[in-house]
Amino acid sequence: MDHKELELKSIEYRKTILDIIYNGGAGHTSGSLSCIDILNVLYNNVLKINPNNFNSTDRNRYVQSKGHTVEALYTVLCDQNFFSRKDLNSLNKFNSHFIGHPTRKVPGIEHNTGALGHGLSVAVGMAIGFKLDNKPYKVYTLLGDGELSEGSIWESLLSANKYNLDNLVIIIDRNGLQITGKTEEVNPIEPLLDKFQSFGLCVKQVNGNSVSELDQVFKEIPFENNQPNLIIANTIKGKGISFIENQVVWHHKLPSEEEYNKAIEELNIQLENFK
Amino acid sequence: MIQKANLEIFAETLLNLAKKDKQIVVVTSDSRGSGKLTQFGKELPDQIIEVGIAEQNLVGICAGLAAVGKKVFGVSPSSFLTARSLEQIKNDIAYSNHPVTLVGISAGVSYGQLGSTHHSIHDLAVLRTINNISIVVPSDNFETRESIKEAVNFKSPLFIRFGKKPMLKIHNEDDDFKIGKGVKIREGRDVMFVTTGETAQRALLASEILNKKNFSCLIINMHTIKPFDDDLFIDSLSKVKAVITVEEHSENGGLGEKCASIISQSNIKIPFKIVGFPDEYMTNGSQSDVLDHYNMSPEKLAEIAEDILK
Q1: How far apart (Å, rounded) are the C-alpha atoms in residues B122 and B276?
Q2: B121 touches chain A (CB under 8 A)
Q3: Domain residue limits at B48
Q4: Residues of A in contact with B57 (CB under 8 A)
Q5: Cα distance from A78 to chain B (closest Cα, Å)?
Q6: Which of A117, A123, A151 has its CB closest to that of B64?
Q7: Same structural domain for residues B160 and B262?
Q8: How many domains does chain B have?
Q9: How confident is the model over B196-223, as pLDDT tens digits?
Q10: pLDDT in tens, B86-106
């Protein structure tokens, strides 16, 4: 998909995220908006995961460690025809598989996440497994920046380095905010680049809301042979909706009817301008 | 007859199976020595993953390996494996339904004088409350070998725990074994000992003391704590006058309370006693000292049986 098509997708995906959260009565609004461009590029241009090959072990993997922004993942999987929009509209309803964190009951979901600091170890295990079998597949995992306080992340990085996992791609959704406030005030994690490099990873930084920068950086993998890849994707939490951007309160806030309408209006204007 | 430690049988069995099946992978957390897997590492270096002292990471990596088709055994001291990594077991293995076998070595009070940090008298209780994981506690070399063989192609999450001391022979090699099916190891009419894992041998020795006093003991070993073989337990209740459960585990949440729950919900009235570790600041000593202190010597078990039959 070319960059224009991807940009259009991102606007449409943001509308879907707002829709399903508003109708479902809950969701992680701003985090889903910050990572949606990453998922857009991954699923449309990089992963080659689709309903036809999902049951095969011979394919790439995507593990969303920051499970709470599942609305972004559902949105992209729906667009990849893993399930219908009608099914997705059951989000948060009684008996629906579409719950507030990824579950393998939903087609296209690789691993159940939600508790933070889990996805990377699982991704490392998958990447080791592919290496053991000399298979060419890659494992992509998306981590939140608040999540980096979990000690298990750093345990996993040691193993990623030990096993020279150049088939592992770690993406940090570096939006700078977590539920309480700024990451650097809640529990400072900088200097991130130095930390990751000292753990033996090959690190690149991109604008994580730019589909062209993301598309380019994914093409450069492996960054170096025998080194795990890490992308610090600098994003804006709430990206795309003026009054949600960089507002801590929107971590798990449900839009009111007025806010929902205003958000959709902003996205419709973006669509108009795009055309 | 004294046989090898179940730990040794586990390691030998796994090595033999892994030589024939390259999809078998062992994951250790600096635990290959304590897991008797040094030889495995030498012979099959491409089938062992070492994560260092990082049990949470060990469990997550096990899940990932299973997700790409490996037959995975995560091996670590039961104490750390089931406490430090409990959330990884819950979410990454059980809830995500990856067919990983987690092996808790040096379980119960196997570590003796090393003390409570290293004891796992909580593992059965905590894992009993996690949905979608089976729990197996083999008694002797035979049950250990058979459970490891069955684990290789087990289709759902599994936890197996055992100790590291030589064990009495309980089974013959042609006995039946299946995860989920308890086994009767002695027929009897007066008192029933219900055991899980390595306490079976203590109940067996107690039954020999009691036999000499003309008491007849029925012994069932519930090597599978979850899913529990309710039928065998309930059927056996009708054959005896009293029941004693024996476990190398806290009295809270283990074998005894599982049996108590079945009895109380089945409207059965029968004298019943749980022998395990009480909720107290525990004493120190060798595994054998500690088991003896908490009423699990054969002599004390026989005494408890005589009391309960009065």
Answers
A1: 11
A2: no
A3: 2-168
A4: 121, 124, 152, 155-156, 158-159
A5: 21
A6: A123
A7: no
A8: 2
A9: 999 999 999 999 999 999 999 999 999 9
A10: 999 999 999 999 999 999 999
pLDDT category at A275 given cuts 50, 70, 90 is confident
B157-192 pLDDT per residue, tens: 999 999 999 999 999 999 999 999 999 999 999 999
Give me the pLDDT at residue A134, please.
98
Q: Do B68 and A57 touch (CB under 8 A)?
A: yes
CA B18, CA B23: separation in Å to the nearest integer? 8
**What is the ipTM score, two decimals?**
0.96
Give the residue from A9, A3, A2, A1 showing the smallest Cα distance to A267. A9
Whether B45 and chain A come into contact, CB under 8 Å, resolves to no
* Helix residue ranges, H only, chain B: 6-20, 38-43, 55-67, 78-83, 86-88, 123-128, 141-152, 200-212, 230-237, 255-265, 287-291, 298-309
User: What confidence tier does B65 reach under pLDDT thresholds 50, 70, 90?
Assistant: very high
Last residue in a domain, options B168, B199, B215: B168
- Whether B53 and B137 share a structural domain: yes
Q: Which residues of chain A neighbour B100 with C-beta distances below 8 Å?
A: none
Distance from CA of B243 to the nearest CA of A (A): 42
Residue B176 lies in a domain: no
- Give the C-alpha separation, A78 to B37, whole Å: 46
The answer to whether A129 faces chain B, any CB pair under 8 Å, is: yes
B224-246: average pLDDT: 98
Chain A contact probe: residue of B96, B97, B132, B156 with most A CBs at under 10 A: B96
* Residues B111 and B193 occupy one common structural domain: no
Q: Are residues B125 and B24 in the same domain?
A: yes
Domain count, chain A: 1
pLDDT of B139 reads 97
pLDDT at A151 over 90: yes
Which residue in A49, A61, A122, A139 has the most chain B C-beta atoms within 10 A of its own C-beta, making it the best mutation to test that interface?
A122
CATH code assigned at B301 = 3.40.50.920
Q: How far apart are CA B261 and CA B128, in angstroms?
A: 13
User: Under an 8 A CB cutoff, do A122 and B63 touch?
Assistant: yes
Which residue is closest to A114 within chain B, CA to CA? B91
Whether the pLDDT of residue A263 is over 90: the answer is: yes
Q: Determine the pLDDT at residue A49.
A: 98
Q: To which residue do tokens 């985090």 refer?
A: A31
CA distance B124 to chain A (A): 23
Best probe of the B interface among A63, A116, A121, A162, by most B CBs < 10 A, is A121
The reply to whether B260 and B212 lie within a common domain is yes
Intra-chain end-to-end CA distance of chain B, in Å: 32
Question: Per-residue pLDDT tens for B246-258?
Answer: 999 999 999 999 9
Beta bridge partners of B105: B77
Euclidean distance between CA atoms A183 and A275, whole angstroms: 37
Q: Which of A59, A106, A155 to mutate to test the interface with B (most CBs of B within 10 A)?
A: A155
B296 DSSP assignment: I
Q: Using a CB–CB cutoff of 8 Å, tell me whether A168 touches chain B.
A: no
pLDDT tens by residue, B261-296: 999 999 999 999 999 999 999 999 999 999 999 999
CATH number for position A22:
3.40.50.970
> Looking at CA atoms only, how far is residue A63 from chain B in angstroms?
10
The Cα A10–Cα A5 span in angstroms is 9
How much is the pLDDT for A86? 97
Same domain, B191 and B164: no
* Model pLDDT, residue B134: 98
Is residue B173 situated within a structural domain?
no
Interface contact flag, B59 A121, Cβ < 8 Å: yes
